[in-house]
Specification:
Layout (H helix, E strand, L loop, with lengths): L8 H10 L6 H20 L7 H12 L16 H21 L9 H14 L5 H7 L3 H15 L4 H4 L7 H14 L9 H11 L15 H15 L4 H13 L2 H13 L3 H32 L4 H27 L9 H7 L7
Helix pairs in contact: 1-2, 1-3, 2-4, 3-4, 3-11, 5-14, 6-13, 7-10, 7-11, 9-14, 10-14, 11-12, 11-15, 12-14, 12-15, 13-14
The structure holds fe (ii) ion (FE2) (2 copies).
One fe (ii) ion binds next to helix 9 and helix 14.
């Protein structure tokens, strides 16, 4: 990923430190101060899930565990000071999510877990970007949608893959069965991330992972950061499983609308990406809910509540991001943050936050 533009004092400090050689005396001294900068950013935040400075900093630190960031030494991934900053931000984010989503009393059999997850999705009345895309979005709004989605879709499945070595038995087998399809059954051009990249190229967009990061608001970064946070912590294995289950449950029907929308706008490669998900996720949602999530609740009851927490987080964060994009579009505005060129033209005061 290219180095993003910082969005506040924490991002400024973080990127300045990460550009140094890890372990050098200067970097070590400045990295120690980063923990204070992270605590200060959390303290002044009016809501971590939509905090531009915090979510971008967390996204950068998480990126070090994926494909890395240009000009930043890979050793920062496991540098103790960088990890400390990541954990300060992640803990604050998790605490906010736990405060914002309702707690569930999970049932104890796989079928009952599946039924409860499907009921949770059916009860959800969050805003639907898929319906908007299907019938009303302009070509420009569809291109914005692809960019907003790209931070996840161009590495689709990777954040949930962290969970594989943390599971066993039926839940692990279920997760792997799903991931095999997400990764194209071993064929590079059929990987869902590759199908999405083709859709971006067709729309004239940069298909490198993280290429759109500067244009993507915090609420969308939060959606990706949440999965990575769940995936990177064994303690949160229930949440990453619940998250994937809800992703699958809420994918098939919206994908049908999205495919229709992209076809209407004559973007067949993007439509093909969503066509693929109509059928695949109708199968995945069953495996995910019953075998993976239901299996985990039986095999590892200590994390049963977190399965439902992870599932709730999907609906909560999706509603936040979708609601923000829809209200921008309804107002005739862009759902993206201003580009560097626009900011330079209009001055930083009008930067979309
Ligand atoms: Fe997929
Ligand atoms: Fe899927």
């Amino acid at each position: 990923m290219r180095q993003p533009q910082p969005r506040g004092p924490l991002g400024e400090d973080l990127l300045a430190v990460l550009r140094e050689r890890p372990g050098s005396p200067d970097a070590r001294r400045r990295a120690e101060d980063l923990a204070d900068a992270a605590r200060a950013a959390v303290a002044r935040s009016e809501g971590i899930s939509t905090d531009e400075d915090v979510q971008l900093a967390l996204f950068v630190l998480h990126a070090l565990a994926y494909q890395g960031v240009e000009g930043i030494d890979d050793r920062w991934e496991t540098d103790p000071d960088a990890l400390r900053v990541r954990e300060i931000l992640a803990e604050a984010f998790e605490a906010q999510l736990r405060a914002e989503v309702p707690a569930d009393t999970p049932p104890r059999t796989p079928q009952a877990v599946a039924d409860a997850l499907f009921a949770m999705a059916a009860d959800d009345d969050g805003p639907s970007l898929a319906r908007f895309l299907s019938g009303r979005a302009t070509a420009e709004q569809a291109r914005e949608f692809l960019q907003l989605k790209s931070l996840y879709q161009l590495m689709e499945a990777d954040p949930h893959t962290w969970a594989i070595p943390r599971l066993a038995g039926r839940s692990k087998a279920g997760l792997i069965e799903i991931q095999i399809d997400e990764y194209g059954g071993g064929s590079a051009h059929r990987m869902h991330s590759a199908l999405f990249a083709a859709g971006m190229r067709e729309a004239g967009l940069d298909d490198t992972w993280g290429g759109a990061v500067d244009r993507v608001p915090a609420a969308w970064l939060a959606g990706v950061n949440a999965i990575t946070m769940f995936g990177l912590h064994r303690r949160l294995r229930g949440a990453v499983v619940g998250h994937l289950a809800m992703y699958e449950i809420t994918s098939s029907v919206p994908s049908r609308f999205l495919a229709r929308g992209f076809r209407r706008l004559e973007l067949p490669a993007a439509a093909a990406f969503y066509d693929e998900h109509v059928e695949a996720d109708a199968a995945h949602e069953q495996i995910a809910a019953r075998d993976m999530a239901g299996g985990l609740v039986v095999e590892d009851p200590a994390v049963a509540e977190d399965v439902f927490f992870g599932a709730r987080c999907v609906l909560h964060l999706d509603a936040l991001a979708a609601g923000q994009a829809l209200s921008r579009w309804e107002a005739g505005e862009s759902a993206l943050r201003a580009s560097a060129a626009e900011t330079a033209r209009r001055g930083p005061a009008e930067l979309v936050s």
